[in-house]
Specification:
Elements lengths: L12 E4 H4 L2 E4 L15 E4 L4 E2 L2 E2 L5 E3 L1 H6 L4 E2 L4 E4 L8 E3 L7 E3 L3 E5 L5 H12 L1 H10 L10 H6 L1 E4 L2 H41 L18 E2 L6 E2 L3 E4 L11 E2 L12 E4 L13 E3 L1 H6 L10 E6 L1 E7 L7 E2 L3 E4 L7 H9 L1 H9 L11 H6 L1 E4 L2 H40 L3 E2 L6 H9 L11 E2 L25
Parallel strand pairs: 3-10, 17-21
Antiparallel strand pairs: 1-12, 2-11, 3-6, 4-5, 7-10, 8-9, 8-11, 13-14, 15-23, 16-22, 17-18, 19-20, 19-22, 24-25
Helix pairs in contact: 3-6, 6-11, 6-12
Length: 480
């Protein structure tokens, strides 16, 4: 037992992993390495399978039962807590869920086992190690860029706050409820993106008629025509990018050398800015340099395409921006027959990206020259149909962003809860059950100072020394 490096409630114990665990150890890579992996058999957990979200089994390996028997000491069991102890993912951890089945680990994954393992304690301990409490200790041990790894003695030395069993259970229930909500939100986002991919394909090949309905090429083949790009709606026309550009401002790239930053200069967009807010962190060039590149100045609703290095990143200039672009970007100013939002969706689509990719040159650093960019052909509906298609896709994108913002909010909520609950700054009352904390999660704000969770000043009793309620030593078992 040791004193924790931060305040905690007087009725909590200050433990180390070694105090509470009966086993701390990892496995090994079987003789022969990956060549002895099999397509079926005993699940073999490696560091890439251990994530803060849980075990990721997309790339899981298997070993034969005879190899597993040779590595029996490193077999893992439900409610073990796994921690990556080497490499770039050092410190990443999760617990083994109930019913996981027979499994083993390699030398990069450390298993921590409690003498009386339970699901709640596994959730609690994994949460502590994933929180600032655990990660700060790992960071200190790896200060100075030393990424060689953690040894068992270091893992056993980690400080762990250890409330009474019932409070650990209540805290674990809240953390797990947040994780479940996060997982459900993530699944919704994945489903919406999958739906969008299908919707995008249909809209850009079948279009929307005047009633806002997808055309049916099977029921109404007369509504479609053959084209160099395949079957397209009858009203659509294949045109080059140059032909749909405002002739007074031809497609061009921007400033070759923007030179040093000028505080009151003209903002210049680069590839990375296409993912930003068009305000933060922009480079600014001297006004005389901007004047020399007046042809590449941009205005709202211009379409920008990355043409050097990263090919095919596409964005539309927002209403608030006025400035110029770098050599890595090309500006397309649509004429009155093309809507900017439709063109952006078209160029971002898988078909649009393939067309852009086929036109690029260069092997060391890819580049898309202006001349071939101008010649690229796409199928364009009438402006009114472009607006209908863009509106549908914009609405769907807004729905995805809404769920992504909720996902981010839940991540921040979890981070705050981990800090509050795992340090005892916010206590969980005995009557605070699963139904209560589920309701709390539905609230849009996390307010630990009010409601059923109340903050508690460390050592309110006035006793500033850690109290240990467990005077009997835990079994240390077969610790390697």
């Amino acid at each position: 037992m040791r004193e924790l490096a931060y305040p905690f409630p007087a009725d909590w114990d200050a433990k180390t992993v070694g105090d509470i665990a009966c086993h701390v150890g990892s496995g090994a890579t079987p003789t022969g390495g990956s060549s002895v992996y099999s397509k079926t058999g005993i699940t073999f957990i490696r560091s890439q399978n251990v994530t803060f979200k849980g075990l990721l089994l997309d790339d899981v390996a298997f070993i034969e039962p005879r190899i597993h028997q040779q590595m029996a000491r490193s077999e893992i069991f439900p409610h073990d807590v796994l921690l990556n102890i080497t490499g770039a993912s050092i410190g990443r951890g999760c617990f083994v869920p109930h019913g996981f089945g027979i499994a083993n680990v390699n030398q990069h994954v450390c298993a921590i086992r409690l003498p009386q393992p339970s699901h709640e304690d596994a959730v609690f301990l994994a949460g502590v190690l994933a929180s600032h409490i655990g990660q700060s200790q790992i960071d200190r041990l790896n200060a100075g860029g030393n990424r060689e790894g953690l040894n068992y003695q270091q893992v056993r030395s980690f400080s762990v706050p250890w409330p009474m069993p019932e409070e650990r259970k209540r805290i674990a229930a809240i953390l797990e409820a947040v994780d479940e909500t996060i997982a459900k939100t993530e699944a919704v986002i994945a489903k919406l993106k999958q739906v969008r991919a299908g919707l995008l394909h249909d809209l850009l090949t079948r279009g929307l008629n005047e009633h806002g309905q997808l055309r049916d090429p099977l029921a109404h083949p007369e509504q479609f025509q053959d084209s160099p790009l395949g079957r397209i709606p009858l009203e659509w026309e294949v045109q080059s990018l140059e032909s749909v550009t405002d002739p007074s401002t031809p497609i061009c790239y921007g400033i070759v050398q923007a030179m040093e930053f000028v505080p009151d200069g003209v903002p210049v967009l680069t590839i990375r800015d296409l993912l930003g807010d068009y305000s933060t962190g922009l480079h600014r060039t001297a006004r005389n340099i901007d004047a020399n590149y007046a042809r590449s100045r941009v205005r709202p609703d211009d379409v920008l395409i990355s043409v050097k290095g990263t090919i095919g990143r596409v964005a539309v200039v927002p209403q608030h921006f006025q400035g110029n672009i770098s050599r890595d970007l090309a500006r397309v100013r649509p004429n009155n027959r093309v809507r900017a939002r439709f063109l952006v969706h078209l160029l971002r689509s898988p078909r649009g990206q393939r067309i852009l990719e086929q036109a690029q040159v260069g092997t060391t650093r890819a580049e898309l020259s202006i001349a071939p960019l101008k010649r690229l052909s796409f199928a364009f509906p009438l402006p009114t149909e472009q607006e209908r298609i863009a509106m549908v896709l914009d609405e769907h994108d807004a729905l995805i962003r809404s769920h992504e913002h909720e996902f981010e909010r839940l991540g921040q909520l979890k981070s705050g809860l981990m800090t509050d609950l795992l340090t005892g700054r916010v206590r969980v009352p005995e009557h605070f059950g699963v139904r209560r904390h589920d309701a709390a999660l539905s609230s849009r704000a996390h307010e630990p100072a009010s409601g059923p969770l109340r903050p508690e000043t460390a050592h309110e009793s006035g006793d500033t020394s850690p109290h240990s309620k467990d005077t009997s030593p835990h079994s240390k078992g077969d610790t390697p």
